[in-house]
Amino acid sequence: MATETLTAAATAGPAGPRRRRGGIRSNENLAGWLFVAPVIVILGLFLLLPILMALWVSLTDWNGQGSPFTGDVPFVGAHNYTQLFTEDGLARRDFMTSIRNNIYYVAIVVPAQTVLALGLALVVNNRMLKGKSFFRSAFYFPSVTSSVAISVVFLFLFANSGAVNALLGFLGIDGPEWFADSRGVLHLLFGAVGVDSPPAALADGGPFGLTWWDWLAGPSVAMISIITLVVWTTSGTFMLMFLAGLQNVPVTLDEASTLDGASRWQRFRHVTLPMIRPTTFLVLTLGMIGSWQVFDQVYVMSQGDPAKTTLTPAYLSYRTAFRDFDYGSGAAISFVLFLIIIILTLIQRRALAERDTDRPRRGLWRRRVPERS
Amino acid sequence: MAVLTDRPAAAPARRHQRAARTLATRFLGYATLVFFGLVFLYPFVIQIGNALKTEPDAAANPLSPFPDPLTLAGFERIFAGTNFPLWLGNSLLVTVLVTIGRVFFDSLAGYALARLRFRGRGGLFAAVIAVMAVPGVVLLIPKFLVLNQLGLYNSYAGLVVPLLADAAGVFIMKQFFESIPVSVEEAARIDGASIFRTFWSVVLPMAKPALITLTILSFQGSWNEFPHSLVSVQDPDLFTLPRGLADLVSGSLGKGTQYPLKLGAALLATIPVAIIFVVFQRYFVRDANDGADKG
Asked: Where is the ABC transmembrane type-1 domain (chain A) (predicted)?
């Protein structure tokens, strides 16, 4: 209690109680700025300034020669952006392909890692089991390792003569050549029911220069191996978040519902799940934000191949700039990606505010969570 | 009430039933734990086993963790046939410098934002929060542009300086400083200690847990950092471990898959973080939950 008041007094700001020692105030003003100066300089110079520079470059056709900030560099206005959306051509086709790939990637990764993380958290949170902390660490360990090193391991696991295909072999399944297989999973499913080539209605005329048939390809077999890797590495982190959420569910509530005769599923569905709803929302949005940033794994495992089916906007932006030396287009792609992620972040920040309902200062949000009563 | 009245008659049967169900639950629980324990750890077991195999053996028995015959040929080639020692040196240098920089600069800024009253503090803190939301992957081209413009491209400075401070670290330190009582500092200040002195000799020693957390996070983050090295250097002499590893995989080895070598190199790159994870586990766990708080 005493601590709280002291902290409150110290952070109260201009409106708070004045200290008796007058001279210290101006002293603190200077010291404050000196203390934050290194961070301001570094973040300003290597984060904010470069974003503005890239914004400029995205309006030019700079090819990497010389400085982009001289009069010699052709200014093209919004052309780098319009060619991603409205002009038919390779740039738009590649960009839309990368968007399609990433949408399928998000659609599988986010639900899979959320369900897996919640499942693991429920098991690890079970009071009747021993040795939980060992398993908790084991599940979390992949999250802290280097994305490059782990990608190397998964390249081996998914190699033609690798562990995954050996495992499938035990089950009598002839595994695919994972990283050479550009067939879309949905196309394979259509093929299984006899639709091998696009029906006339889907053969052309889809939005943004891709045919409907292309949009409906699903993630390629190669992408599935990257998806597996990512779900495997991220679930541990989200498991810890769910664990923190589960520990806030009062044991008495669970016991009360048991006495009322609720089955385990009913308890999960009507007690646990509503109680951890804010955490779930948080995990879902954080997962979406992260899934639009997949880069390292693509770089190491597939470089966008086979047949551009593992191309993602993040990797495409890198490749366009640093391999094709079209920095303007590359920067434009990364700003479109930035926009997607910022929108998701704003949604997530709202979710966070909602989760903090029990803090009295955020009373505004309380009304939005009717379950908490 | 109904529960109470029918309890005497049904009790033994129900107790029996419950005991059986508890047993079944436990069995199922352990089975799940073991199954997923294998899913999450076996890839590392395979990695270790295959790093010690010959190439034909790794191709023929990828699932087996036991090398037959056991050989260190892969590791010998890592040290003799690749630039691994150089990458290791670069990674160590970058990691140590970045970690020192982050711990120092982030705690300075965190302290100022938590305790010192200066004009613009609120705005600065809002900026820190905003910066945390900037996704690293959209900064690839921007970072290259600024390093190029400043003449830092392809230099150690380019590898290190942009990483010397991070918004998330500032946030962690600010939160921590706000949680410790202000009275000790006030006493030091009344005794005439300067602001920096108070921070350095009174506050920092109390912030040990947060400093350890930040050290570990910075170490892990900069040791594993890949995209930054991709856009800040091109010279193979400046490659860090992840960069060198990615280069190995993308074909600088020439012919053959050479999986034992690649797995061995990846293993060596993983070991430092693995050791730190085992020793300082609770700090990692705390971080993940802080992550939930700060988003």
From this structure: 99-348
Question: Which one of B63, B145, B245 has the shortest CB-CB distance to A152?
Answer: B245
Q: Do B97 and B201 belong to one domain?
A: yes
Nearest chain A residue to B228 by CA: give it: A296
Residue B159 CA to its chain's centroid (Å): 18
Integer Cα distance of A36 and B199 in angstroms: 13
A300, B246: Cβ pair inside 8 Å?
yes
Q: CA B262, CA B278: separation in Å to the nearest integer? A: 24
Provide the domain count of chain B: 2
Query: Does B77 reside within a domain?
Result: no
**CB B60 to CB A161 under 8 A?**
yes
Q: Do A148 and B245 touch (CB under 8 A)?
A: yes
B133 and B253, same structural domain? Answer: yes
One domain for residues B66 and B92: no
Q: Is A353 an interface residue toward B (CB < 8 Å)?
A: no
Of A51, A148, A295, the CB nearest to B242: A148
Task: Output the tens digit of pLDDT for each of chain B's 295 residues.
Answer: 444 444 455 566 777 777 777 788 888 888 989 999 999 999 999 999 999 988 888 888 888 888 888 888 888 888 888 889 999 999 999 999 999 999 999 999 999 999 888 888 999 999 998 888 888 888 999 999 899 889 999 999 999 999 999 999 999 999 999 988 888 888 888 888 888 988 998 899 989 889 998 999 999 999 999 999 999 999 999 999 999 999 888 776 655 678 889 999 999 999 999 999 988 887 776 555 544 333 3
Q: State the smallest CA–CA distance between residue A221 and chain B in angstroms.
A: 20
Nearest to B149 among A67, A154, A334 (CB): A67
Complex ipTM value: 0.85
B167 and B249 inside one domain: yes
Closest chain A C-alpha to B91 CA, distance in angstroms: 13
Shortest distance between the Cα of B29 and any Cα of chain A, in A, equals: 6
| Structural domains of chain A in order of their starting residue, each with its CATH number | 87-184+219-358 (1.10.3720.10)
**A161 chain-B contacts, CB cut-off 8 A:** 59-60, 62
Contact at 8 Å (CB) between B159 and B228? yes
User: Could you give the angle at which helices B121-132 and A24-43 cross, rounded to 10 degrees?
Assistant: 20
* Contact yes or no for B138 and A317 at CB 8 A: yes
Which stretches within chain B are classed as H helix? 2-51, 55-60, 73-81, 84-115, 121-132, 140-150, 156-160, 167-179, 183-190, 195-197, 204-206, 208-224, 227-232, 241-247, 259-279, 281-294
Please tell me whether residues B65 and B95 are part of one structural domain. no
B43 with B146, same domain: the answer is: no
Measured torsion, CA atoms of residues A354, A359, A360, A361, in degrees rounded to the nearest 10: -80
Q: Is A159 on the interface with B (CB under 8 A)?
A: yes
Burial class (CB in 10 A: 0-12, 13-18, 19+), A45: middle
